[in-house]
Write a structure and sequence with these properties.
It is built from two helices and four strands. It is α+β, with helices and mostly antiparallel strands. Strands 1, 2, 3 and 4 form a four-stranded antiparallel sheet that branches. A hairpin with a 2-residue loop joins strand 3 and strand 4. The relative contact order is 0.25.
């Protein structure tokens, strides 16, 4: 039974996640999208839709991507 999980991300990190979206969707068999109606200032909700295990695994990998992105972003600043 598919579930839907919302994850709040920084607008600055959105492009990095969009570049990785196809690989994440294929690997974990989930749908990932970024509704424009969920933008709030510098943050946006990303929706992950799929099975319970698939969304959990995808969310863990997204967290790893965001950690790496944050390190690169801070080094760039």
């Amino acid at each position: 039974m598919p579930i839907q999980v919302a994850k709040t991300i920084s607008i600055d990190a959105r492009n990095t996640l969009v570049r990785n979206r196809d690989a994440l969707q294929t690997k974990h068999n989930v749908q990932i999208y970024f509704p424009k109606s969920l933008v709030r200032g510098a943050y946006q909700d990303m929706i992950i839709k799929g099975g319970v295990n698939a969304t959990t695994k995808a969310e863990r990998q997204i967290d790893q991507i965001l950690i790496q992105w944050r390190q690169e972003f801070e080094a760039f600043k």
